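quick one before i forget lol
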Amino acid sequence: MFDVVIYSVLGAFYLFIVLSQMLVVILENRQPVKTVAWLMVLFSLPVIGLVIYFFFGRNRKREHFVSRACASQLARRSAVRFYQGGFPELPAEHKPLIKLFRRQSGSFPYPDNKMRFFISGEEMLDNLLRDIAAARHHIHVEFYIIEDDKVGQLVREALAAKAREGVSVRLVYDDVGCWNVKNLFFKQMETDGIQVAPFLPVRFPKFTSKVDFRNHRKIVVIDGIIGYVGGMNLAERYFYQVDKNQPVWRDTHVRIMGNAVGGLQRAFLSDWYVAAGQTITDQVYYPREEECRKIMACDREPYVSRNALIQIVTSIPTAPWPDIMQGMILALLRARQYCYLQSPYFMPTERMLFALQTAALAGVDVRLMIPERTDKRFLTWASRSFLHDVIRAGVRVYLYQKGFLHSKTLVCDDTLMSCGSTNIDFRSFERNFEVNAFVYDKEAALHMKKVFQEDQSHCRMLNLETWETRSIWCRVAESSIRLLSPLL
């Protein structure tokens, strides 16, 4: 009898907690689809649902990771050359997009940049190691994943060699992204003279306030003049086929030389402030335009573009606006001829889905390329549940079959392209720290268009009739997982 009373009390207490949390979810006035998803988790998964919500569901939009004073200082430093040289001439067709980024996050359009594109991991790694070896003043490295494998060890040794020469080396890694890496790997970096900081380390009891906010950026800045940004992490699978039974990874990364590296520098130093608690605003980290031009004139690398106008755009989960998502939406809605997109995962927000459908229905040639199979079967099913919605509107969907497509790119109308770390999914748009380079340049756009078309030759195109013939069990599984897509 006593046991029955205890269980009744515990049951009532648990029910009270669940109902109170459901009320909190409703009162937060999130997007209806996300509210319903969390209500389902809390209601249908006893105990487990409450634990999942406790760690991942609580809304912490009011937290500010970077102080306003720090952000303001970094913005001024990164833009000093911009102001000295005056405003560059902006392409008329992209002025609204440029102004959007400028007003939302202080992302300036930087002129006079050289660009190289890497779709081969080995080529990107070779160039990165060569640039590290040539560094004179500082090297800033930030990746979501840095693994203790051949690639990670190779980069660590290269950075350690420069640290011994007196070059200032700083490295930020995401704590959750590197959960599988032993602390000894990073301790060795510190022993070698590298300054290392984990981004929002997940430790008890503050676990729940940080685990859902992850730094997904991939940034390298060398001497404030050379920068790297894109989708590749520092792990073997991004550069080599480690296992013959596993698919080859196909990704895209960009090397930038010029003024726009100031935008990457600003992004890194903002994250360094969060990770290490140190504000760095010295002008030495932002070389003046004359120095940039002198170094660029001596550079003989084979560039795709030599005079690109670039904006480095970042997004953070606590910002009032989802900057990168809004930029993609505006690019889609302003496209006149075509817009091609690549993403490893496709779980779009309602706004992004509506923009894709609207552009396609307006007669724009909208093409979406995703992998036939992702690295996680669960995410493959979730991505496929959205395909019927876009195919029906006229979006051409291509499934990449040569390997795992991890590239995150956009190209529109031969005048605009974007490459960075942002996937077309809820997490990248709303929960991660992300960075993309938006490039307003014909040569760069045409190159990215050509790459897309080459990738297209390794795809199979879906059509509405064959897609609708999938078994009922496939549809049920995909639609069921879709309900949880805002939480993945």
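fyi The chain has a mean pLDDT of 83.
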